[in-house]
Write a structure and sequence with these properties.
Layout (H helix, E strand, L loop, with lengths): L1 H31 L5 E5 L6 H17 L3 E5 L6 H8 L7 E5 L1 H10 L11 E10 L1 E5 L8 H10 L4 E5 L5 H13 L3 E5 L3 H9 L5 E5 H9 L4 E5 L14 H4 L9 E8 L4 H15 L2 H9 L3 E2 L5 H21 L7
Parallel strand pairs: 1-2, 1-3, 6-7, 6-8
Antiparallel strand pairs: 3-10, 4-10, 4-11, 5-8, 5-9
Helix pairs in contact: 1-10, 2-10, 4-12
Length: 333
């Protein structure tokens, strides 16, 4: 019996030492981190605006941290393939994810089956750009302002048609947000992709839509589309004369944007997350990086604290999730 008690005491002592040692590992790991290459998983194909920006800051992050930063493209499953892969990756700071409102705020409600938990599986590292949409119309539509569009939509005997790259995507929900806010009736025409949805506005098969800046800017400059407003709360540098929707419609709180955030698996040690956050804040606050983000139609954000980012994420999940439910689209995909 004494031997058993002695063994038990020994085991407890060893356990206590192990716990004490474990408690010292996190700061040591953070101090030494990184000791090997870091991979950033991007949910879109090479050449997309998101991919281009990630590659720009990956180079800067590599310089700041002193280890290679590899960009791995994993498109598919409406941006969810990449999220599912990183959700189960080791939580050691060496596998990171870039994601958007679609994968982190909309899809968890829209899809029947999602192989990750957007809230529990990830911690945000850096919120660095918003991806605004531009409200574009075919130039033959007799409107030049948002109030004129709303008036026309309310007075027409037959509803206007609007396009999007698919049911439940951010552009679709942004237009439904507009419809509910201003009490207008417009018919949704879903397409398979962004180029097709914009091409049919140019061809006047549909009259309008919220379009990604990068995809619509050349057509706006060529006069093939007319821009009425941007969906962000501020103007975008690439279209300085186009009003924010909030200002154009006198609706101060109206904002319907996607965003890009860098995430780590949720159990990643806080000192490592903090180190990455500090490096990204410095990189993305640089005027050169802001200018490069603006050039591809994105709206730079001075990265807020992780706590403030989590609050913003919660508000976005509520905003878009509740709209998906209200439209009867919950679990429809």
């Amino acid at each position: 019996m004494r031997l058993n008690k002695s063994c038990a005491r020994g085991a407890l002592a060893i356990g206590a030492v192990a716990l004490a040692l474990a408690g010292t590992l996190t700061p040591v790991q953070a101090q030494d981190y990184p000791t090997k290459p870091i991979t950033i998983v991007v949910p879109l194909a090479p050449g997309s605006g998101m991919d281009s920006l990630v590659r720009l800051y990956a180079d800067k992050l590599q310089q700041a941290l002193g280890k290679p930063v590899i960009v791995e493209n994993k498109p598919g499953a409406a941006l969810m393939l990449a999220a599912a892969a990183v959700a189960t990756a080791p939580a050691d700071g060496y596998t990171l994810l870039v994601s958007t409102s679609s994968a982190m705020a909309i899809n968890p409600v829209l899809y029947k089956k999602v192989n990750y938990d957007a809230v529990k599986d990830f911690v945000p590292v850096s919120f660095y750009v918003k991806s605004p949409f531009i409200l574009v119309v075919n130039p033959d539509l007799p409107v030049k302002t948002v109030p004129e569009l709303i008036k026309l939509a309310k007075e027409r005997a037959t509803p206007l048609n609007y396009s999007s790259p698919g049911a439940g995507v951010a552009q679709h929900l942004s237009m439904e947000y507009l419809k509910q806010r201003f009490g207008v009736n417009m018919v949704h025409v879903p397409y398979r992709n962004t180029p097709q949805s914009i091409a049919d506005i140019v061809a006047n098969h549909v009259q309008l839509g919220f379009a990604e800046a990068g995809a619509s800017l050349p057509l706006i400059r060529e006069g093939k589309l007319r821009a009425l407003a941007v969906s962000a709360l501020t103007r975008i540098p690439t279209l300085p004369d186009v009003l924010p929707f909030a200002e154009a419609a006198k609706a101060p709180d109206f904002e319907a944007v996607s965003w890009h955030m860098l995430y780590a698996p949720a159990a990643t040690p806080k000192p490592i997350v903090d180190k990455l956050h500090a490096a990204m804040k410095k990189i993305m606050s640089d005027p050169e990086m802001k200018q490069k983000a603006s050039t591809i139609g994105l709206l730079p954000v001075d990265p807020p604290s992780i706590a403030d980012t989590q609050k913003y994420l919660a508000s976005e999940r509520e905003k878009w999730g509740s709209l998906v439910r209200k439209l009867g689209l919950e679990g429809s995909q």
